[in-house]
Amino acid sequence: MTEQDSARGAAPMRALGTTRVATLADGIFAIALTLLVLDLHAQHAATQTQLLSQLRGLAPQFAAFVISFAVLGVFWYGHHMELHFIVRSDRVHLGITLAFLLTIACVPFSASLLGRNYQFPLAATIYGVNLCLAGMVRYAHWVYATAGYRLVDPSTDPEMIRYVRRIFLLVPMLYLVAAALAWLSTIVAFVCFALIPLLYVKPARPTRHLTSLRGISSSP
Amino acid sequence: MTEQDSARGAAPMRALGTTRVATLADGIFAIALTLLVLDLHAQHAATQTQLLSQLRGLAPQFAAFVISFAVLGVFWYGHHMELHFIVRSDRVHLGITLAFLLTIACVPFSASLLGRNYQFPLAATIYGVNLCLAGMVRYAHWVYATAGYRLVDPSTDPEMIRYVRRIFLLVPMLYLVAAALAWLSTIVAFVCFALIPLLYVKPARPTRHLTSLRGISSSP
Amino acid sequence: MTEQDSARGAAPMRALGTTRVATLADGIFAIALTLLVLDLHAQHAATQTQLLSQLRGLAPQFAAFVISFAVLGVFWYGHHMELHFIVRSDRVHLGITLAFLLTIACVPFSASLLGRNYQFPLAATIYGVNLCLAGMVRYAHWVYATAGYRLVDPSTDPEMIRYVRRIFLLVPMLYLVAAALAWLSTIVAFVCFALIPLLYVKPARPTRHLTSLRGISSSP
Amino acid sequence: MTEQDSARGAAPMRALGTTRVATLADGIFAIALTLLVLDLHAQHAATQTQLLSQLRGLAPQFAAFVISFAVLGVFWYGHHMELHFIVRSDRVHLGITLAFLLTIACVPFSASLLGRNYQFPLAATIYGVNLCLAGMVRYAHWVYATAGYRLVDPSTDPEMIRYVRRIFLLVPMLYLVAAALAWLSTIVAFVCFALIPLLYVKPARPTRHLTSLRGISSSP
Questions:
Q1: For chain B (length 220 residues), average pLDDT per consecutive 10?
Q2: Among B17, C4, C124, D133, which is most exposed with the fewest C-beta within 10 angstroms?
Q3: Per the confidence metrics, is the pTM higher than 0.90?
Q4: Which residues in chain B are contacts of C66 at CB distance < 8 A?
Q5: Under 8 Å between Cβ of C163 and C115
Q6: Where are the domains of chain C?
């Protein structure tokens, strides 16, 4: 068996190992992102003033929608980056992925709860715990996949693996802190939820070379 | 016609034979999984105590959501595994697949019915019968595809085919038993529904080599 | 430029010309199929008798759901078969495809209307007209794509093209007849809607060789 | 490294750089297109006359649905065309894409608002501003991708780049004008919303050669 053969063998294995998982994940992310807007119900208004007050009343739900869109978008990007390194799949990996998608599928509900009851610390706590769980499951996912290079390519940069682990552990902690802060001030918690996704805007050094996704051309 | 040519000819045939079916199935699974959460309506609450009691009231619906997510996730995985072996498609196969997806599309409804009326054996029965039908159609799907190697590769391990048949016949029987048990105790039925998906966690010997999906590399 | 090069050139062209259209169409079909179930709302019931009568009340909506699932499944299969022959795309083709998907996206509404008002000929007429329009747009799609082999391979069997045209013209006529029959008896119209998708079960001679989708292996 | 190798290296890079973004975008477009119909609720009617008046009452919502379907279809086609030229991805590009998808995900809400309150200039303004924002974000997306050939192939025709920029700047301006006109006459605004998508029907010279998507065969 030549090296080329093994490369060919690897291609369908990888395709089957992660392609359909990626399709399901993309589908669930796309639907969760779009279902968020269903929380905004447009009603018939008798006058334009009533329409304006209806829209004002929707403002917190709209804010929860925009924040959750950013949160899910960033989680989607993270999942995208993870699958870029994960070349194999197994049952445990599929199970953790489904648990992760379960936490993602909950976001339209917890975002709706937050948008409609933003003044209560309990709503912000449930939202924060939901996102914290999503982050914790993702951390478990990455640790499982990278421990002993179980599901990643053996040539994967160990510094990058450790760096992503730290980031993936930091994010759920931040959501937990935001959830706790809600009991001091729900506004502060809301602001935290809005700011946490922005952390991804400026990539740190070890993953900066990934931004153009050029790293792949050197792997085969 | 060389062996390589036949491999090339097989690739697009397979792609057309099963790729778009897989896309439709992934789409329906992704939507069914995410629609489950629509059963949880967040309402405006006047006080935090009212919010808490609202959430407590949603607990059975949330339990039905989580269980159904696991059930659908396991069915999705099974469908994934089936399509791994099925290399051709025909009208009967497409018809059975659509019937299977019909039973899957019903799950958000029967899960909502169960979550809202968990105390009535009738609700658990309808849920159990829905999942039993999904399992029976899947069994018919596998039997049709594997009888005389109709839609699978002739080199497919016959022991594996028989093993999957037994599993695919066992699962709908379990759901039927759970549906029947509901008339003794709805709690027992609920627990059964929660436990059945866990059967997939520990793969038995004949399919264990599939867990890493490495088996594919030897097929071409 | 050798023949092989032109085949290579054709591959990405085809991919771009029809792949993303197919993805969008599969997405819309998957969602329309799954949204159908949203018409079935499960309510809290006070007693099991009330739950049973609630379910009985949903029976016509459930029937409309199952029929529409079959109708959409058959339309999806037809679209799948069409794209199998269409190797190029242009703006008119995209426009007709979007018009077709518009009629498909209407089905969850017209099916819900039929399920809730099955006793009125008007509801059956709107449902029938919706499906008739879907069929007419599909007919226009096929005529446009095949006239002078505009978007299909020049080697496509002309007998098959004419046969599919006749079928694609027949189907909307049948839905129109069913819609008209509703003014005599809504039951008869309902039965027609249930039977029309079954026409696809037994393929006629000119497309029978497509059932195994083997015809593709000879095309390159 | 031969030229063929570099072509091979480019293929997975491109796939990873834009394929999953395209999948997510197609998913969100497909869902947004289909969710539009959820605004049309079919109710039980006591008499056929009541059913007819119910349907008449839905007419403006149906018009908003059809217009929005055309608008989203055209935006989807534009996104499709953009991704045809964009061969790389980076974080900023992903961020702008998510912002674009956020404006797309808002359309089912603003369309529902317009359909239910078409007589108020405020509703038409919100709808127009939503589409204007979608267009502005798309313009930013294209400018970012093409500035210094950042994410497009260096051989991309500069005339085409400038032409698409002008079109992508024109469209949001038109939606802004339509939103402003609503304060003179909501009917005029409605008609504008219906006509703007038709601008895409007749392609201007610089992109006419793209209609058959044949331009690709010459790029590698």
A1: 35 50 88 89 90 93 94 91 84 90 95 94 96 96 92 89 93 96 95 90 52 35
A2: C4
A3: no
A4: 102
A5: no
A6: 8-214
